[in-house]
Model the fold of this input.
Amino acid sequence: MSELSVKHLLGIKYITEDDIRLIFETADHFKEVINRPIKKVPSLRDITIANLFFENSTRTRLSFELAEKRLSADVINFSASSSSVKKGETLIDTVNNILSMKVDMVVMRHPNPGAGIFLSKHIDASIVNAGDGAHEHPTQALLDCYSIRERLGAVKGKKVVIVGDILHSRVALSNIFALQKLGATVKVCGPKTLIPKHIEELGVGYEGNLRKALEWCDVANMLRVQNERMEISYFPTTREYTQQYGVNKALLDSLGKEIVLMHPGPINRGVEITSDVADSKQAIILEQVQNGVAIRMAVLYLLASKIKHNEDR
Done:
């Protein structure tokens, strides 16, 4: 198979295991490209991509922008905070205005769950979901699974625990879908107040005790507490959260085995993980950042190939 089964990347839920494998194989190739002295390839020279960020983002936006430029695409950056959205313009109006500039692909982050799906029904361009509310963040899950595959050789058969604020996390949901499609076993760990009520229906186990979770797993993906999505307090104090669910070097060293530590960023150092853990050889946080560019290059390239294929018919 050399083509994705979908026209858009709206969520991990909508793609197949074969799609994920194709993205990984393509990312392997681009990883080799970005380690060359000349890091650009002309693959998307005639493709125009609009980055629409209706929510603040630094790392994801920069990662997509770098991926687009490495592929020689024409890039339009749009930030809602400095746009007509502030004046009451709707999502459809904004996008139609941008599409009138003949855009082929849209990379969008939006605070409302399902914004990408809504858009895909109304416009012709390919949509890449760069995060929709607390729903999905597919490229983050892909780069996380790709990083596990790179460090441990495979995702299949691995035990992965996702620790922290599962309730408000789009990273957690996309990771659960991707890990399960690739044959990993997943548990979540965190205060009961930060775990969605029906998480077990996704085939995911819950472990309330961090030490037990770490003793069980091969990989721990540490999420930050998303204070910006909280209207009420979900635990007494940050100090208490750190005591129960923060990973420090002493805890890591006492496990009697080596586990892989991940973090989607940005890290609250000293809250979910201490600096000496974040900077240790067990942490693959910087590899995740580098792999993010290769994965996003792969996704954009494969979706653009589908556009070109359809135009040629």
About this structure: Residues 285-312 form the longest helix (28 residues). The chain has two domains: 12-136+291-312, 138-288. The first strand starts at residue 48 and ends at 53. The mean pLDDT is 90.
